[in-house]
Write a structure and sequence with these properties.
This protein has about 160 residues and is mainly α. The protein has 9 helices and no strands.
Length: about 160
């Protein structure tokens, strides 16, 4: 039936079924096709973000999540997943803006990543003071990894740990 009428709703429904069967790559492909047809299909957009973490093709994740971000620039999860895919592709200079966008939306994991990128100068100019700002934000949200990184950063900068 889908071959005869591969509309976005049908593709998105099949993606759900494929995901339930743990056939994530096929499900993600269907979601990508659906979003290519109907960009603002909200169900497919959220399914794309969910499935992005479960597929290995980082290039395809970047393509599909770019469609999601184009429609919903407030999707911190989409920015995080696309940033991670850029990271996996060895493109930290492209990952950082996505992490920064998600961090500005208040995502604690993204704030940690921004702090780490600034600390190490990964894909951007190193700025340890700015790194500490982002690590503080993430730690304040209860992110345990950020709390450890913040304490280490404070120690290296000669500041008192909390």
């Amino acid at each position: 039936a889908i071959r005869l009428d591969d509309d976005a709703d049908s593709l998105c429904q099949r993606a759900y079924t494929l995901a339930e069967l743990k056939r994530f790559a096929e499900a993600f492909a269907d979601v990508g096709r659906a979003l290519s047809k109907v960009r603002d299909h909200r169900n497919c957009m959220s399914r794309a973000v969910y499935l992005a973490a479960r597929v290995d093709d980082a290039t395809e994740v970047v393509r599909v999540l770019s469609l999601v971000i184009e429609v919903d620039p407030n999707s911190g999860s989409a920015y995080n997943r696309r940033g991670w895919s850029y990271h996996r592709l060895g493109k930290p200079e492209l990952a950082f803006p996505d992490y920064l966008a998600a961090a500005k939306l208040g995502d604690a994991w993204a704030e940690l990543q921004v702090g780490k990128y600034y600390w190490g100068g990964t894909g951007i100019r190193q700025d340890r003071e700015e790194a500490l700002v982002w690590l503080e934000k993430s730690a304040a949200q209860g992110n345990k990894d950020a709390q450890v990184s913040r304490d280490q950063a404070r120690k290296e900068l000669g500041r008192k740990a909390e």
